[in-house]
Protein 1
Amino acid sequence: MTKIAIIVGSIRKDSSNLKLAKALEKLGGGRFSAVHVRIDDLPLFNQDLEGNVPAAVTRLKNEIEGADGVLFVTPEYNRSIPGVLKNAIDWASRPYGKNSFAGKPGAICGTSPGAIGTAVAQAHLRSVTAGFLDMAMMAQPELYLTFKDGLIDSDGNVSSPDTAKFLTGFVDRFLNHVGGAAKAKAA
Ligand code: FNR
């Protein structure tokens, strides 16, 4: 089965982005298996540690490398991506020549209470992933979700049928994107 590494850019327990990640997994209806990549126990990136990387970093790299695709679900902090997410990306991209993201198909989405629902953070993340990390990022559909209380519960149930339909469409396109990349690699 298609394996998707899901990286959530918020590490708080009640994260709306974690709820969105769970909703996308649920709406996938068993068409992919999700690996929830843990980023809250990574040390701050320090090149001095690269010679003998902490176990959490090895786990991070293995989870990304073992996945068929990577889904980023991120909040926006000060019109960019959260530091915890950038820290995880920096670790997984190293050491030089061993970038775990290289060639992986990916997609970006996110939610915030704001009207533009993480659009600026997503643009920054697209620049990092497609522009430098050599990932094959899905361009459309974009998923900028304005979060409202009760829209998604902590189990990933979506209260609005319209939102659920839109999120299902995103998952459908992403799985096609990942499947297409796998076929191109095999050919
Ligand atoms: C925010 N928030 C925020 N929202 C936004 O739409 N654009 C922004 O630039 C920012 N900046 C920002 C900075 C910092 C440091 C914090 C803590 C928060 C609000 C943010 O979207 C909100 O807290 C979300 O609920 C965070 O996502 P999770 O933790 O619910 O997934």
Note: The mean pLDDT is 97.
Protein 2
Amino acid sequence: MYIGQRIKRKEDLKFITGSGRYIDDIEYPGTLYLYIVRSQISHARIKKIDVSDALKVNGVVGVITGLTIPFENRPNNWPMAKDEILYVGHPIAAILATDRYVASDAADLVQVEYEELPAVIDPEEALKDKVKAVEGKSNVAYKKEYKAGDPEDALSHSDVVLEEKFEISRVYPSPMEPRGLLSVYQEGNLLVYASTQSAHYMRRYLLSAFGNQVKDIRVIQADVGGAFGAKLFPYAEEFITVYSSVKYKRPVKWIALRSEDFRGMYHGRGQIHKVKFGAKRDGTLTAIIDDLIIDLGAASHGTYLADIAATMLPGPYKVRNLRVNVYGVYTNKTPLDQYRGAGRPEAAFVYERIMDIISDELKLDPIEVRKRNLITQLPYLNPFGLKYDSGNYLHLLEKAEKVYRSYEEKARELRSKGRRVGVGLSLYLEQNNFGPWESASVRIKADGKVQVIIGASPHGQGTETGIAQIVADELGVSVDDVEVIWGDTALIGEGFGTYGSRSLTLAGNAALLASRRLKDKILRLAAQFMKSDVQELEYKDGKVVNPKTGQSMSIKEIASRNMASLGGIWAFKEEPGLEATAYFGFDNLTYPYGAHVTLAEVDDSRKVKILDYYAIDDIGTVVNPMLAETQVIGGVIQGFGESVLEEIVYDKDGNLLTGNLFDYAIPTAVEAFNIKWEYLEEGKSDAPLPAKGIGEGATIGTPPALIRALEKAIGKRLTRLPSKLEDLI
Ligand code: MCN
Ligand code: MO
């Protein structure tokens, strides 16, 4: 059995030997390089754009301005600002040149005449709807009320009623590779190389805009240097690049500079929760009323993140009286969309802060407060209709409690020596496997090697290895003989992609079902080749055996017999070919859960140091504990960044103050720390392979645990992400 084993990643060799192929490594003769001229101010009316000087530059082939394409939840001035500039970084013009440096030099010669408009940057200001972020439009792009039970009544019957404002700042997803696209126009067809989380989504988006101008669009996912949720949905620059290659009938390449990526890549998080909540003296949470303001920036496609946060607000707790008033507001900033965790980290920050605050206010132990509120019967229908499927939350919490108590012990000792240390624990609920289904095809080639094609688009997670383990077990072959490929819309009919921690579960189960289907076909073909009745045969360890006669055939023999001359094949009833496709999806989402415990120190220079860190997850069957563990490690470090280092900051006029990696701090090897991880397999999903996802969990569990530890270290309540230096006095 490979499932459950720490198999080394199959995908790494090419990257560690330098033979990865990212978009910018792919070269086509005759390529034009595209450079985007971006707005330097946050809100203005465009009066005139003069490109005549730019067009005179030797090597410049064309300049595009005023391109607008109607697209769902995007402003009228999309993908380019035609008459109104909405944020710093908004594309205004695109220079196409035979050399990328010529293109960027020519960009300086584009003259934009504009009339500045007042900008609204602060989301609470935006909610007042006085200064408009988009001319002629209300700032309130989205309003929704989620209500369950009777929260007002429950508050009036509570022993304590508390109020708090939690702020979760915007972050930049910071993949190592910025975005980019290469669009190749060939005889009426488009071949698009993308740094994306889903080749199929990209094709569908591009077809909606360019489908009537080209015969077909094929999208290939190049190697992707990280995405973290931010490379799933379409971007202005991608549409501008494709438009240009159709217009000039040439390959066009666009690669973002890091500083452009800070302004162009959708920011994540950006939520404010103004919360009123009540509790009984014993720590029972009675009700939550939450005004949730999501800072959408200049487009409204990020509203679903508030919906996820709102419906997940009860977390793993029994509270049934809630009201969440969601306000999605436009601001003159880069549009907002998903970042690893997507709505669940925001919810967890709020419900875990609430648990800790209740324990402080009522002088109760934080674990006891959690236990008092914990859901103990699963499946459970949460007050907003989400069905938590499986698991034993209490068991996991009890395991985490042991770690917590031992960290407390250490903390007491260190505190007695005058050190500012604290311990934090978080319990969190994850929700994953979004998207209707995923596809997989499994083939056996003539040499007996197995090829798996999946509709998901992994980009660093290690899914190739995980899925190879599943298929190798099912077919009884060596994991080294299983190759997993993906990321090309010409490879498999339809698919979705890699997001919402779904790939192992959905594509993995599709691959499992396809392997089972393929085994039936192998048996039928073998029956013919072995001149046996199919009922007499058994599939075992990559072989078909006839227990009665002792006769057997390996998959390799069957696969090569399958290739025999036409007569040899058509003489049989079964058609040739060893290939099967299957699809897998859930009726309900799955709900993994976990707990994080940390011992942290704030030193005299207010620097945060993690002295110990422990995470426990229950994701049902773990296919490869090493892959899952590395996802947790990466996620904890990202969560650390979000908790103490990373923040997108704009000044009051909408200038981005943290627009490069000098001003925007992400954790590096220097800040990294040791993380211990353990897993339970009690909460199985109802899939044939009863797994759930792990790709995002750690970004949900880390901030509330860490902020609690810091709060205990300094003895002052912390309510925002990240905690800033001035908070840590
Ligand atoms: N796994 C496992 N057993 C399970 C579940 C998962 O062994 N029960 C393994 C899988 O084989 C895979 C990894 O854990 O190697 C993650 O699988 P899964 O939870 O299915 O998540 P996805 O593959 O769908 O990845 C998406 C997830 C998301 S949504 C974001 S955002 C994120 C993340 O993955 N972005 C990442 N981790 C990232 N890691 C890297 N390196 N780069 C990103 O951009
Ligand atoms: Mo994601």
Note: The pocket of pterin cytosine dinucleotide (ligand 1) is lined by residues 226-229, 340, 458-463, 466, 498-505, 619, 621-624, 627-628, 631, 634, 691-696 (CB under 6 Å).
